[in-house]
Amino acid sequence: MIGVWRRALIATAVVVVAFPYAWVTLAAFKDRAALNDPSRLSFTPTLANWREVVEGRVLESALTSLLVGVVTVGIALVVGTLGAYAISRFRSGGAVSRFGILLSQLMPPAVLVVPLFLVAFDLQLRDTMVAVVASHLTFVLPVVTWFLIGFFDGVPREFEEQAMVDGYSRLQAFRRVVLPQVLPGIGAAGIFAFVLSWNDLFYALILAGGNTTTLPVKVASFNTFRGVELGAMSAAILVSVVPVVIACFFVQRRLVRGISGGGLKS
Amino acid sequence: MAQISLKALVKRYGDIEAVRAVDLDIADGKITVLVGPSGCGKTTTLRMIAGLESVTSGRILIGERDVTGLEPKDRDLAMVFQNYALYPHMSVADNIAFGLKARNVPRAEIERRVREAADLLDVGSLLKRKPGQLSGGQQQRVAIGRAIVREPAAFLFDEPLSNLDAKLRVEMRTEILRVQRELRGTIIHVTHDQEEAMTLAHRVVVMNRGVLEQIGSPADVYQRPATEFVARFIGSPQMNVLDADDARASLGVAGVGDGAARLGVRPEDVQLAGEVAHDRPAVRFPALVEVVELLGASAILTLRARADRRLRALVSARSLAHVHEGDEPEFAIERDAWHRFAANGARMAT
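The joint structure predicted for all components is written out below.
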């Protein structure tokens, strides 16, 4: 009996999660008439929405998002790895830093965005990728750091001590014997960080809503003054969602370890 | 190889003094064992020598070199950790070669020395494996191999045998002795196991609460413990230590305890009365045999003497033929078997 209930529960969960994806996928191939009558299950597929997606420079925005994501992840990994190592080994910042680093997540983005906007304006970086990357780092870097602390905790201290006695400096020891042990964690953190950056709408919309639109901003732009262009928007959403689904598939297991490992050990 | 000297070495963590003004000369080409209960400062001392722990005050000399402020990598030491710290992503050969690569030893030379060390430790056939594919004993050998290829000024062993089961531990102990004899290396070995200390050491250094209690040969610390702590710590089963008044009252000891606060007697010196010649000066007393623990050739007896005073005796299995749990035979302790300790724990001359 338990097996049946369990299966029913899982099936429900799958339906709840999968339904929006299915709806968006179908909508991306519907024409206007079909979209306006959700009860219609059979319709003639059309590529009109995709034409709009191409003409609306959605792919360019995807490229922008990709660039922003890659640069953000690159910076976050270099800084976050060193930071997480320091917190794991030297208790940098005291016992607070382990969790305190996540406090930034409690702050609503709306609080940060105004100062960021003003700074970007003064530095003439408004509507540039630099501004977007900087804003993304405000939430990506703490998460990456916190995520990696648990992985460093899992590497015995003796590894680098052994290397140091054997003739390496601490930095060399870190690179040659500690880093290889946490590479899987760094990979997962990188993908996780990329998804965070890729999905951000708020900062990108306010700091760079003009020429350097990221993908979520572009998706939102299909909400026009003439109404929501559901079909084209759905097609754009598909473009933005597919890479995330693929990424999550590859890191799911390590994601759990990173999230639980970051805080538990003290 | 070189002599290592510690001069007034101190390590303080906040208010806690982990190591208090330790002065110690470690002989060249010998095995010195630091032994003591956990928290006695032995590992901290070793880590300070390695450079992994900063020194609060005092100096560390290796040969003529003052290394107190040097980085670990510049001290020319090799260390073996309790958990071996073998790198899981490298093969056994790469693990052993790791320290040599740091010193830019030519590749042919590295290969030759790795091969030699591996053969010496009998792991020559495992060079291509990863550490995860080795048994505990093999991992231990590889860890020691990684230390000896370096040909360092001294070896630091931090409880390297603690993770092995009893049988392997004895085997690896012999192995360390064999390798040491062959290379004539200076070894500082840290352990909490007094038996390991006795069997491995040329010199035993007993530590307690950050202080050196006694430095001496294994025979020395066993036969003439400098303090009551050493007397209790070294030797298994433990020495019987009684208040002097108590010893007089319960065992009828007379003429030995004068001026001493405590009296100690090794279990093997508590003998069945029949085995002590009648003309020997000894205290004789009846005691109830509560428990007999047979070890094979010998047995540990838990005795209850007058006034519920408990004692442990170590007797040969042969003499057990007539003694059973619940019997109350007569026991004897010869007069010169007693160790006398002052109120502050220091040994008193007999």
